[in-house]
Amino acid sequence: EVQLLESGGGSVQPGGSLRLSCSASGFRFRDYAMGWVRQTPEKGLECVSAIGAKGADTYYSDSVGGRFFISRDNYRNVLYLEMTSLRAEDTALYYCAKSTPVGNRPAPDAFDSWGLGTMVIVSS
Amino acid sequence: IRLTQSPSSLSASTGDRVTITCRASQAISTSVAWYQQKPGEAPKLLIYPAGTVQSGVPSRFSGSGSGTDFTLTISWLQSEDFATYYCQQYYDFPFTFGPGTKLDI
What we know:
- Chain A has no helices and eleven strands.
- With about 120 residues, chain A is an all-beta fold.
- In chain A, strands 2, 4, 5, 6, 9, 10 and 11 form a seven-stranded mixed sheet that branches. Chain A has a four-stranded antiparallel sheet with strand order 1-3-8-7, with no helix packed on it.
- The model of chain B has no long low-confidence stretch (mean pLDDT about 95).
- The interface of A and B includes residues 45 and 47 of A.
């Protein structure tokens, strides 16, 4: 059974940093692209970042590019999201999500498994 | 790529057939997924690509469309289907989601 467990969320002041982690199990982590999707009641769902299976290809939404950095450790089966220069509008529930199989393409497709999410609050 | 969904909310009864529409701001082939989300839970993938129901999803769910217009149909509503439904495009990054359709009793 696929399991994704996020951690690292919390409260931080504007301008601060956080690192989210997602521990994966139940599948061959190194074979799948992964992503981070955040959700707020106001803005809904937003895919902020994704990474190819090998970690060489990374993708960012315009709202976080240059501030957030995605990475993965295929030996420890962990996905990361380093968030810097945090803003109030980054406040959200952050989900780790596993892509559907994409063969040799680096980018993910849809997300067929999701974690329970970790909450990030940016406030002074 | 912007996605719009209609309606934004929908009231229905068990046994009804309902259709939710998703429209993309540009052609995206069949690169659309549909998700179901219940309160306090993560989204669940129902359909990917546009016309393929995922394994384990009841056959009353179906999807169709290509280009810019897509539909999700639930043919015989069950009590467990009352939830919010989102479309997502994965044609190009940044992947985007529709604003959701809340289906309630």
